Amino acid sequence: MSNRTLVDAYIKELEAEYTSTRKCLERFPVALFSYKPHPTSMEMGYLALLVAEIPLWITFMVEEGEVDFATYKRFEFSTSKELLDHYEEVFKGAQKSLAGITDDELDAPFYLKRQGQVLFTQPKREGVGSTINHWVHHRGQLTVYMRLNEIAVPSIYGPSADDRTF
What we know:
By secondary structure, the protein is mostly helical.
């Protein structure tokens, strides 16, 4: 496929975030599903699911061109293994979706909807990049929740206080 400079960069960026994200999800204890550091914070289980599932948004963006909150089905899990298996599945799906398009196809619009009503639209090229950033942001939140619960934070972009490997 020609004209894939941006798509290839997105794939490389997605893959660069894979391992550290998996390390965080591997350490998530389902016993802390309802933990919230503050009453207005999201529950740790929802946050872990969000981190595991955000690559799925890329698949929807590329293949469907839209996400409708009214029909979007959040994955339900009760074990860490189910969460990790879901992460693996959606990550591979995002890779496959991106591998099947060109940079020019990223010019098509992406629509975020609620019950068919458009809430937000942007070119897919902007949406994929902001989705990866959104993913990294929520993974960072998850590491704060981990720290507050004495769960060892893995090395991400360099050593952490708990993991000196890099």
